[in-house]
Amino acid sequence: MSGLGASAALAVLVAWVVFALLGWVASPGLSAGLGAVVGVVVVAMFRESLAVGGAVALLAPFGVMLPALAVRHVAVSLGVPMAPFAAWELVGFLVLYAVFLAAAFGVVPVDLYRFGFAPVPVAVMVLVVCAYGFMTGNWFLPLVAVLGQAAWVMGWGSSNWFDYVLHVVMWPVALVVLVGRMV
């Protein structure tokens, strides 16, 4: 992702963290507004700082998914109606992504990551995600898949589509959400 894209993604994530922390003591609207201001100010004023550079190094490539999940969470908290992910969807994601990561580390003898470099497999995966969205009525994942494909086609960063639609941070986040629903 370009420097501008990484900065925008980091601003969204900083804004989301501030929103989440302020959400314990302030209204969602105030938390979202202050989060947006802090996200923009932190990235604009401290772009060359060690902390911001470290955050970029730790989280990059941001892709489309992390900022989209942050924006989705804020939108839902502000009252925008969106269907939550079902428990079975979270479990399915955890299992499939664990297999994907195991394959990427060479534990599973199939290189699934290589499919993200080729146009035909990417198109098929995007169409499958879009069909899933059509069947479930949940347009969040198809939107992320298509935006990720657009960024991938335009060459805004990684040469692999998976880098736009997946992030290793998603696994623990999905696990925490799933456990939180069970408690």
Can you walk through the features of this model?
- The chain is mostly helical and 183 residues long.
- It folds into two domains: 1-79, no CATH class; 83-183, no CATH class.
- It contains nine helices and no strands.
- It has helices at 3-22, 28-45, 50-59, 65-77, 87-104, 119-136, 140-153, 162-165, 170-182.
- Helix 1 (3-22) runs antiparallel to helix 2 and helix 5 (87-104) packs antiparallel against helix 9.
- It is globular, with a radius of gyration of 17 Å.
- The termini are far apart.
- The chain crosses the membrane at residues 30-46, 51-70, 90-110, 122-141, 161-180.
- Keywords: Membrane, Transmembrane, Transmembrane helix.
Characteristic terms for this protein:
183 residues, mainly alpha, 2 domains, 9 helices, 70% helix, 0% strand, globular
Summary of the model, kept short:
The chain has 183 residues and is an all-alpha fold.
